[in-house]
Amino acid sequence: MVMSVTSVYPQLEMLLPQVGKPIQYVGGELGAVVKDWDGATVRWALMYPDAYEVGVPNQGVQILYEVINERDDALAERTYAVWPDLEALMREHSVPQFTVDAHRPVGAFDVFGVSFATEMGYTNLLTALDLAGIPLSAADRDESHPIVVAGGHAAFNPEPIAEFIDCAVLGDGEEAVGEITDIVRDWKNEGRPGGRRELLLRLARTESIYVPRFYDVDYLPDGRIQRVVPNQSGVPFRVHKRTTMDLDAWPYPKKPLVPLAESVHERYAVEIFRGCTRGCRFCQAGMITRPVRERSIDTIGRMVQEGIEKSGFDEVGLLSLSSADHSEIADICSGLADRYDGDNVSLSLPSTRVDAFNVDLANELSRNGRRSGLTFAPEGGSERIRRVINKMVSEEDLIRTVVTAYGNGWRQVKLYFMCGLPTETDEDVVGIARMAHEVIKAGRQAAGNRDIRCTVSIGGFVPKPHTPFQWCGQTDPETVDRRLKLLKEAINSDRSLGRAIGFRYHDGRPSLIEGLLSRGDRRVAAVIRRVWQEGGRFDGWSEHFSYERWEAAAETELTAQGVSLDWYTTRERDEREVLPWDHLDSGLDKDWLWADWQDALSEVEQDDCRWTPCFDCGVCPAMDTEIQIGPTGRKLLPLAVAGPAGERAPHSHQGHGRTDAATATAIGDHR
Amino acid sequence: MSPRPQPEAQAPVVQRIRIRYTKRGPLRFTSHRDFARALERALRRADVPIAYSSGFHPHPRVSYLSAAPTGVASEAEYAELALRDTADPVGIGAALDRALPPGLDIGEAVTAHTGGFADRLEASSWRVELGGVTPDRLAAAVETFLAHDEVLVTRLTKKGNRRFDARAAVVSAASTPVAGVDEPAYAILDLVVRQVTPAVRPDDVLSGLSLVADLELPVPPRVTRLAQGPLAASGDITDPLEADRRAPADRH
After folding, report:
1. Which parts of the sequence belong to the Radical SAM core domain (chain A) (predicted)?
2. B123-229: which CATH topology?
3. What ipTM was estimated for this complex?
4. Which candidate in A52, A260, A265 is best for mutational testing of the B interface (most B CBs within 10 A)?
5. CB distance from A659 to chain B under 8 Å?
6. Residue B7's pLDDT is what?
7. Does residue A316 share a domain with residue A446?
8. In whole angstroms, what is the distance from residue B247 CA to residue B252 CA?
9. What's the gap between Cα B23 and its chain centre?
10. 8 A C-beta contact, residue B166 and residue B151
11. Is residue A242's pLDDT more than 70?
12. Residue A211 contacts by C-beta under 8 Å, 6 or more apart in sequence?
């Protein structure tokens, strides 16, 4: 029998008056669940390794939290990264890392699941482990410690944190958490035979849970990997990603979490499809989430209705990697706009497609409302570089699209680009200025006045595993910064046009560290540990990130191992090199990825298999999955007919006479 | 030509409801903005016919009055809701209470029949629990504090350090005996403080006690606002909703 676990809230409460935004540590969200500790066999602590305000709206954690808590034999609670002010007090007063639900110590749970949307959360993992009293190295843990599981997109190459985690799950989590729960439950019920090692072996034998300790990595004298091989019988050579098929069968989140504290996304979000086959070669999300699986229009309508009723949110986000691509997006948008007309509910559609249809959708969602900003993502400043990255947008497309937008009353257009792309030249980047100038010229004409603006927003490109660019050399920060300076000068070379153009960018150095963590191997763990020991926290926040700290730690820890920061980032790999994630199977055929990389270098484009025949990326046959898209031909009916929305009001006030409030829209950012 | 959509007009206000609400337990850490967001979502969930402001970004029409600081519990916070349809205030209060998380509770809801509500919130009474301080020690410190005509304290605000008098606004201050305990591990400070500008808060009075009487606090104090309202000649605080409750037009 495990002793029951008590709340650390009384100790924590004494510290809260001394820290910033204490409400973020209190819990009590609408939709939160606190289950009886002793009534559950398998207890999960789920972490999003960033501040509460960023972590609490995260869809992945909300979905898994709900799926686990629906089981009778399990419970799940949530924990987030604590800010340095509270961390210092917790250390001083010996308060451990806690969950916000019942304020139970994370170290008391059976499984500690951490969702990594980005690699920049790795140092926050170490803080949480340390505060929880869990040894940083998995090798030092015993049966009293939770199994530490990594998930999220970064888990497709967990090698840099392999030392710190017990296992990693690749791909969709809905079914994986169920399988892990079953395995842990059976092992506990059997009296924990074989201890922690046996449990990890059972997890590894599923062939979809990666347990790093059961794989040995050998290196060549020049620093490259020689091979990665299992050191246990029964452990697969390759671990396969998970794919949840039929999203209509998984309509989560059903009970959205509504925090008291302010968070970065104050809305009910419904994922309208998962996966993307546009084939943008820089986009890891598009590559590792294949194939496309749509949620049907009826399920989306029902989730939005129930989500608003249960949460009280006044904004709904229709999320996916490219929401305008849903086969029935026009009916979804007009149906929802009809349903919530006059309800002061705003609808947003994160889509950056450069075409008039995208503007039509935005118009529909903002029927009576303010038309402030629209976002498009041409990503590259020349036709040539757009062929390299497979972003099939011509300059005429862009001008036609912005003319439609400005002509329809939109005042502001935001354009996303990247800098540091493979084969990129100064001309490719400076070309962005010419595009922006043309946008303003065409826009002033279409709008009939000069009251329009365009913002150019630039992100630094980071090569990611499981993409055709996984072999490329990352552009060094000096080159990126120099090109951005040239671009800024070019934008302002025409004062009249430049005045209407905003320019937003970040310096290139954080991207280099993200590059190290993205394509690193197990030797990078020492760098992460040193940065953390020297105070590295919240590396995704520019005010906390220190390039100098990472650079110095890389110098100290990598030189002795015969490699370097540059070796991991700016070095181009060849076809035969064993990549640190080759034993992790995203379904993409490595030969296809290489061929697509060669096509990129030859400036050859690749169609979208959603609309054109299969191009054999390998995912569907390898994973036994298929594209699931509509159209269903069904429509969203008005709510008065479709559901009992009016019946739940506990008091009477019929005849609302609600009139037509503005339905604001943000066709917004997906980054 | 470019069409520029205009915001459509919102329904007019036909009724105002004044509510008293609490911030209890862990939810005392909600800031004023946190509470406003929670209330606005509760209004939607409870289907309250709240009126909206005009413009491109319509907001629910709610007025908040002198909110207690973040971290301070309260039994007596007030807000006023503007409705676009008439409704029974008791029903609205009950529905809102169900839609708000436990700890943010609706104490009372009455229809507004009078003006000058904000002016009626003349003073607050605060209960301050001071762990690790003996009642005798506190009583001595309070005596010293009250003997001063002026106690200048400094508070760090968003605009930098601000220096002001924490004494004049204090109507009464007393070290209240902890009932039924022989040797209490804490002392209770009961304060009645006038609403002034800049606001004098309990922590300002504590700064004053530290300044003039060296009162040290081994642990952070627990503060609760017990009441807000008109200040009677006796020095007591009376119910600010009384005038609305008595008004003949209100049959609820």
Report:
1. 262-504
2. Alpha-Beta Plaits (3.30.70)
3. 0.88
4. A260
5. yes
6. 67
7. yes
8. 10
9. 9
10. yes
11. yes
12. A166, A167, A200, A201, A203, A204, A235
Q: Which residues of B touch A406 (CB under 8 A)?
A: 2
Q: Which residue of B has its CA nearest to A344?
A: B58
pLDDT digits (tens, 9 = 90+) for A77-124: 999 999 999 999 999 999 999 999 999 999 999 999 999 999 999 999
Distance from CA of A449 to the nearest CA of B (A): 9
pLDDT at A651: 35
Whether the Cβ atoms of residue B12 and residue B51 lie closer than 8 Å to each other: yes
Indicate yes or no: CB of A406 within 8 angstroms of CB of B34: no
Let me know if residue A586 belongs to a domain. yes
Looking at chain A from residue 302 to 331, which residues have their Cβ under 8 Å from any Cβ of chain B?
A: 308-314
CB A447 to CB B2 under 8 A? yes
The mean per-residue pLDDT over the stretch A248-267 comes to: 95
Count of domains observed in chain A: 2
Report chain A residues whose CB lies below 8 A from the CB of B40: 312, 314
Contact A260 B30 (CB under 8 A): yes
CA atoms of A299 and B126, how far apart (whole Å):
51
A9 touches chain B (CB under 8 A): yes
Domains B15-119+241-246 and B123-229 share a fold: yes
Q: What is the pLDDT of residue A670?
A: 33
Q: Which residues between 257 and 276 in chain A have a beta carbon less than 8 angstroms from any beta carbon of chain B?
A: 258, 260-262, 266
Partner-chain residue, chosen from A260, A312, A651, that has the shortest CB–CB distance to B34: A260
Integer Cα distance of B149 and B168 in angstroms: 7
| Distance (Å) of CA A532 to CA A80, A149, A157, A537, A555 | 17, 20, 20, 7, 15
Mean pLDDT score, A295-323: 94
* A494-520 tens-digit pLDDT: 999 999 999 999 888 999 999 999 999
B163 φ, ψ (degrees, to nearest 5): -115, 130
CA-nearest residue to A407 within chain B is B2
Sorted by sequence, the CB contacts under 8 Å of residue A214 that are 6+ apart come out as A200, A201, A204, A230, A231, A232, A235
What is the model's pLDDT at position B121? 96
Cis peptide before A193 (omega within 30 of 0): no
Contact assignment for A366 to B5 by CB distance below 8 Å: yes
To the nearest whole angstrom, how far is the Cα of A202 from the nearest Cα of chain B?
41
Rounded Cα–Cα distance for residues A472 and A469 (Å): 5
B134-145 per-position pLDDT tens digit: 999 999 999 999
> Chain A, 441-500: which have a CB under 8 Å from a chain B CB?
446-449
- Contact B103/A657, CB-based, under 8 Å? no
Helix A525-533 and helix A547-559: axis angle, to 10°?
130
Say whether pLDDT at B56 is over 90: no
- Average pLDDT taken over every residue of chain A: 92
Domain B15-119+241-246 has CATH 3.30.70.580: yes
Residues A60 and A128 in one domain: yes
